[in-house]
Structure formats: C-alpha cells, structure tokens
Amino acid sequence: MAQTISEYCENNVLVIPQALFGMKDVSTLMHAGESAIFYKTLEHDLLDIEFVTRCPCLVYIESGREVITTHDNHTYELSPKTAALFPAGIHLHSDFANTQGLLKAYLVFFGEEVLTRYLSGKRKFTDASTDTNNAEQALCLIDGSDSIAAFFQSVQVFASQQMQSNEFLQVKLQELLHLLAFQNKAGFSACLAPSKQSASAKRNINRLLENTQTLRLTVNDLAHLSGRSLSSFNRDFKAIYDMPPKQWLIQRRMQHAHQLLQESTSSVTDIALDVGYENSSHFIKAFKETYGMTPNQLRS
Hints:
The structure is a single chain. The chain is 41% helix and 21% strand. The protein is of the alpha+beta class. It has two domains: 5-197, Jelly Rolls (Sandwich); 203-299, Arc Repressor Mutant, subunit A (Orthogonal Bundle), CATH 1.10.10.60. Strand 2 (26-32) and strand 3 (35-42) form a beta hairpin. The longest helix is centred in the C-terminal third of the chain and has 19 residues, at 245-263.
C-alpha cells in the first residue's frame, strides 16, 4: 500500500531517490536509470524528516517554504524560485510548516552517466578556488531565474505527453546543469563531484539524540550511528552540549526515567531497560545519586 512521506518516515530514514517511487505525495515525472525528476506536493506540516541522497540532488521550490538543516546545525530556508543542490551521501533534515500554503517542489537526481558527461567538459572544476572553498559546505544554494522556472514548466508539459526515454532525460538534465552553472558559477561543480570528505556521512547529533530510543545505546554506538569516529564524536558533542557525551547520557537517562516513573505503571526493572540499564541495581544507584532517592521512594 502506498504511503505518504510522513508515514514512511515514522520508522525510516528517507533514502532518496529510491524511497520516493510510489509515494502518495510524490509524482515521478521522468525516470531512467539513476536519474529522475520528481514533483512533491505537501499539504500538512512535515517536520524533522531525516534524509540522505544517493546521488547529487537538486531541490527547486515552486511554492511554500522548506528549511534544511545540516549535520552541524546550519539551516537554510528555501523560498519560492530558489533551489539547493545536495552532494551525494550527506545526511540532512527537512522541516515544512504550512504557514504560507502548500509546499510544491521539484526534486532532480543526477545519475553517474549524466554527471560524467557534464563534468568531462569541466576540466578545471576541482582546481577552482571558489569550488575548493565551497566543497566544505553541505549544499550549494542556487538563485532562481525565469529560465530555470521555464525549464520545470517544460518538464511538466513533456511528462503530461509521456515523453520518456533515457536519451531524452539525459538531454534535459544536461540542459538543466548548464542553466544552473550559468546562473551560479561559484562552487557549483564541487557539489556534483564525487565527495572525498568523510563529513558527508555525518548525521545531525541534536536531531539524532531527540529520539529517546538512543538512550539505550553506548557512547561508542552513538558515535557509529552519527557517522563519526569516537574522538570526532566526543569533540563535536562537547562543542554542542559543553559536556562529555557520557555525562550527558546519564543525565538524560535519569530525566527520562524520572518521567516514566511518574507517568507510567511500568516496573522499575522495565524502566531501567528502557533507559539503557540491563542491571536494575546499577540503575537504582545512578538514580539515587541524581535525585537523592530511589525510584520506589519517588513513587511512594
């Protein structure tokens, strides 16, 4: 049964473009191999959607507003007739609040065949200083233009006439890439080139830790899940929370346990397991050190 993006993301990270096929709120306009053009329409708020793209992806906003958050908490607001190009392999979060009407946007994915053909004509794209500086960014912001808007209008016409073939999609995507490059010369090719940075695999620590299921994990597990080495995770974590991750994890476990003890009828043993303690004695000791009383004393 077809799902909406919201329904799918309740239990999954959105891996695109693969996950978009067959979505209720996403239409496939053109598709061949790794390359595709989609059109999404969102009516209701869609917040904290984590996604990762398997190939470079362009998002072009036709109407509405969408906020993109990177792994290091930089945010970018995309408004009508603006776009962003995401390199392959990066983890991002999307937030849409329906305060200014529906969100209507195009998602374009550039497969390897398209990129090879385009980049083969850009001999010095890896050497340009503007591209080198921009390569450290998680995405490339693109100013819209009438020509880019006209391109997507033509895509709708061709899709309605079922003009589908690999060769035709190749031509249209080459056209789009040249339009984008002409409009935004600085840093554009860096977002298309294969990523050489491990930063692309990093996930947003704040968003990751909002899920209480992570309280069951060790610091090593969290580092791995966030796409970082243990030393890198400790460094990035302390920069955000101003404390070591182990100290933060104990505090959050105790806070969540305190809430569960007051709001649920679960046993102390079950609550200990919920917050990552297999040994309930260790949990009771940590709880007493934090609150000056045992879990049962809190409930009595």
